Amino acid sequence: MQAVLMVAHGSKDKEAIEEVYAFMDALETKLDSHIMIGTCFLEFAKPDIPEGIAALVAKGARKIAVIPMMLLQAGHSKIHIPNELDEAKEKYPHVRFTYGRPIGIHDVALEICRERVEEIGENTAIPAPDTALLLVGRGGSDRDANSDLYKIARLLWEKLNFGMVEPAFMGVTTPLVEAGVERCMKLGAKRIIVLPYFLFTGILIKRLEKMIGSYGEKYPGIQFKLADYLGLHPHFQTIFLERIEEALNEEARMNCDTCAYRFEAGRLFAHHHHHHDEHDESHSHHGHHNEGHRHHKQDVHDKSHHHHHSHYGKSHHYHHHEEESGK
Description:
Rossmann fold, disordered C terminus
């Protein structure tokens, strides 16, 4: 029996968890009725990933497609979820697991951004040279995800008619939101529209709302408007249905070309392969959880992914900073 397990980040914010379940209720109506579907969370909420997998196996699932409900490819989708799947494969050898990919840079997501801006009364078809769009992401130590936000900002600049589109982050990396605001002003912006590039609400969204409220007083003469986060837009159902279909057909591919973990994992695997001829697996394009990577995942974490402070193994505890988790 085929099942799909959707993995959301999780949050200490009750409203964020409610949004996830509301989205899943809508998504489930679009799936074939013979496919079981489950929802779980990486942290801060239950069920966690092992519990979500166990529930589907108990219902008879023999094939489980796991889909990260995340916007960009970063440590959670590259390292943490695959690590949980490695352990699940050992625990349930009779179950076949396939792994999907996050939303990534997707034209439908860009259109949702346009809609969120237009919802606050902005006409994106009319040139507005003194208007800036500040695209705010969560921020992290994954250079791949951080650079993706820059690419999204450029694509939005191509799509919209604002004088400038600038990226900024809520934490962990720079430029932070206030630095992004100051850059927009230096470039001549008289109006700044802040667009949170977040899938669901949470602690950081509510913090951002307070920050933008204070900027009107701090920067007199500059008009600030806050657009809604991406949220429960029905077009996201279309994207996740694509991701589910890819995983069911085993067609999902991750972008490993600029992944920081790829290089360290490749070096460690090459060293391991040289000394242990019996391990003939290679670091495939989707190899963030292949055998070579699995043998060295703790070393890779220690050397290439230290910012997450996660402890691989049986404890399943993720001690993330609030800014990193976004929740």
